[in-house]
Design brief:
380 residues; Phosphorylase Kinase, domain 1; five-stranded antiparallel sheet; 13 helices; 39% helix; 15% strand
């Protein structure tokens, strides 16, 4: 870590660590704000390709900044031994962490909100002929306003003059089949990966998996996209059609980021909610009611939703209107991890589901129905 950086920023605690360096929280007395400092030890980079990627990361992020859905870079300090980048500070919980916490995936509304912002970031990259090449939940962060922030451009490259890129880069579950097969590819590999992320958000697990990396690659190359009825019964036909066009083996027929962005069903407005640290949709059609009535209905709805969330009441209202978690789904989403039998596997035997209601839940149903009904009548 260079001395110039230490003169301009106060280095605080470490918040992340990778193969070649660390990420620390830092404070700027001049700007009176906190940032993230990514420090890479160049002595650990023995491969010339890794060194080139490190230099490209800072250049690419500088070119793409600022964008509302891409982690912004503010300063770069480069010397013989290290490269330090001062970046926008995001929440520590990634999309991967939120998927694990959801225990079965998100509702279509939540998934649509995240995907809209992710596709906006990817489309912005592609306009500059930049391919990210490592789109995955771990690299999708959130700021304090819960906006999506695409991060980690260490694998990103510029598209060549012929419009192609080469090299086996990416993460097994999310990498496109043309990359696995060793062919030249274009920016649409990011769209494939984003489609896999969307599938994982809706289902709670990725569409292609196996016990080993080789089995995962084989499943990716086959590209047999399935929608298990029990898992996708609450997912709209439009969302499934979008998945088919994003996770399409035929690159010529696969959507571009701009096409996917234009086809995604994004007609909801969003607000921060305290339930599981996720985002909660809250939209009132003010064209059909007066503004004051709309505000009253919105406030009443938020109170009701917060009551349901805090008390975890397993009623028909929770299942039908809770957009946070799909209570009917039983699935697992996880990284490949070492199991007790010694194998690396995506799935394990621990399945979890939401609690089911008993006789007391019926009384809660009646109480909540009356509460909602008279609340709305009073508001109108």
């Amino acid at each position: 870590m260079c001395e110039t950086l230490k003169n301009n920023y106060q280095i605080c605690e470490e918040i992340g660590r990778g193969r070649f360096g660390t990420i620390s929280r830092c404070f700027s007395p001049i700007k009176n704000d906190f940032f993230a400092c990514k420090s890479v030890d160049k002595n650990l980079l023995t491969d010339p390709t890794d060194r080139e990627c490190l230099q490209n990361e800072a250049k690419i992020m500088s070119l793409l900044s600022p964008h509302p859905n891409i982690v912004e870079i503010f300063d770069v300090y480069d010397n013989e031994d290290s490269l330090d980048m001062v970046l926008e500070l995001c929440e520590q919980n990634t999309l991967y962490d939120r998927l694990i916490k959801s225990n079965g995936g998100f509702s279509e509304a939540i998934s649509a909100s995240v995907m809209k912002q992710l596709l906006a970031a990817i489309a912005h990259c592609h306009r500059f002929s930049i391919v990210h090449r490592d789109i995955k939940p771990d690299n999708i962060l959130f700021d304090e306003m819960d906006r999506v922030k695409l991060a980690d451009f260490g694998s990103a490259v510029w598209v060549a003059e012929d419009g192609t890129v080469s090299g086996l880069v990416g993460t097994p579950y999310y990498v496109a089949p043309e990359v696995v097969m060793g062919r030249d590819y274009n920016e649409k590999v990011d769209v494939w990966s984003a489609g896999v992320v969307l599938y994982a958000m809706l289902a709670g697990f990725p569409p292609f998996y196996g016990e080993t990396v080789e089995e995962i690659f084989e499943a990716v190359v086959r590209g047999n996209l399935r929608f298990p009825p029990k898992v996708f019964r609450n997912v709209s036909p439009e969302a499934k059609d979008l998945l088919r066009k994003m996770i399409c083996r035929d690159v010529s027929r696969r959507f571009s980021a701009e096409q996917a962005l234009s086809k995604a069903p994004m007609d909801l407005e969003w607000r921060r909610d305290s339930f599981n640290g996720l985002i909660c949709p809250c939209k009132i059609q003010e064209s059909t009611v007066e503004a004051s009535t709309a505000n009253s209905l919105s406030l009443c709805g938020v109170y009701i939703y917060n009551y349901l969330s805090s008390h975890r009441i397993p009623t028909f209202l929770c299942a039908a209107q809770n957009p946070m978690v799909n209570t009917s789904r039983i699935s697992v989403f996880s990284r490949p991890e070492r199991r007790e039998d010694g194998r690396n596997g995506q799935r394990n035997s621990h399945m979890a589901s939401s609690p089911v209601g008993g006789p007391a839940a019926k009384d809660c149903d009646l109480f909540l129905f009356c509460f909602i009904f008279f609340g709305l009548v009073y508001a109108v």
